[in-house]
Each structure stands twice: as structure tokens, then as C-alpha cells.
Design goal:
alpha/beta, 235 residues, Spore Coat Polysaccharide Biosynthesis Protein SpsA, Chain A, 9-stranded mixed β-sheet, 8 helices, single chain
Amino acid sequence: MNYAIIAAGEGSRLVQEGVPLPKPLVDLDGRPMIRRLIDIFMANDAETISIIVNQHMTQVREYIESLDLDVDLRLVVKSTPSSMHSFYEVSRAFDAHAEKFILTTVDTIFKEDEFSAYARAFAGDDSADGYMAVTSFIDDEKPLYIDVDDNNIITAFCDKPFDGVKYISGGIYGLRRSSLDVLASCINTGVSRMRNFQRALVSAGLSLRAFPFPKIVDVDHAADIDTARAFLNER
């Protein structure tokens, strides 16, 4: 499997709230959160790991460059206006023959065993164009609500809750190479934001399966660091 990490944000909120380290280097379980993701990906048959970091976050770039890993690690250093643009830039580092890839933002915190089940399911399913992690646990400032049919195929991404809503987006995206054509079209037509790219995938007719996680936590504020640490220590 080919993996990618978006770590291109400036982390300004954490800095304003007194966190001295860049977000990707914050320790959650004895490791910087970006190293935790790399380790999880390597434990789940990583062929390549592509990472994009903000050009101003020199500590993060230097940390990644210092790693000696038994995997093809591809680093993109560029500032971008949105996570969708970061996805576009890092996708240009993907292996040209990679049919499937899994992308996540660096501050998306999940349990390793649940991620492994997700990665295995996506790798073994040739019927879907993508596997989108979803959760019924809402801990996001601006959640993206997801409507699904009886087979858990996503029919819509919504900014506001609706009757019967079960899930929100979990920030983990398993996609086939065909999605990159939709991404390029979004970039070329001035579309912005990751959620609008996801809507474009549905509009383009791609079959996206919702894969439920019991809980996924985002680290947006200093208080979220303790929340994430407690979550990872839950049995």
C-alpha cells in the first residue's frame, strides 16, 4: 500500500496556546505524532510514504530528513492554501504505478488496530473507488456530515447535520488513482477545500465506501493533546 501524510499546516493555534513544538512533532505516546503515523503505515505494508510539510516548518522537515527508515520516504516541502492543495502537491510524489493509496492529515488520531482493519479492507476490495474513514464520534469544530445508502456507499457530504445522520468524516482517505483526475480538475477550476473535492468525487460517479471507526480525534488546540493522549491509552 502507498501512504501519504499532509503536515503542511502552520499550527498557529497551538503556538498561540503555548505549545512550543510544531504540531507534527508533538509527543502523544512517546513519539512525535508524525512518527507514530509513519510507524503505523510501515506496520501495514507500506511501499511508499509521501509527506508534505510547510516550507516554513524547518524543524519538521529536518526531523523527517533525519529518519533512517526501511521504506521509500518521499518528502515534499511547500506551503499551500488548503489541505486539498496539499493533497495535490503530495500526489505528484506518488509512485506512477500505485493504483491505491491512503492519505491522512498528521493530526488525525486513531487506534492502530482499527486502522489496520481499514487498510486491509480497502486493499482487498476491488469494487469500490475509495474507502473513507467515518465515525459517529463528533469532536470536530466544523464536522463534515456523511450520508450513506444501505450498503454504506456515500451519497453526499454535508456541512450541516440532517435527519438520520450517522457519521462524520474521519479524515482518512483511501482512494484509487482515478480520483487524481478529479483532484486535478478541482485545482484547475478553482475549487478549494478537501470537503469540496470529496463532493466532486461523488458528482463524478466514484463509488466511495464509508468505513466506520468507533472514534477518531483531531488535534486542533492545546487541550486536544491531552484528549488524544487519553484516547490512545484507552483499553
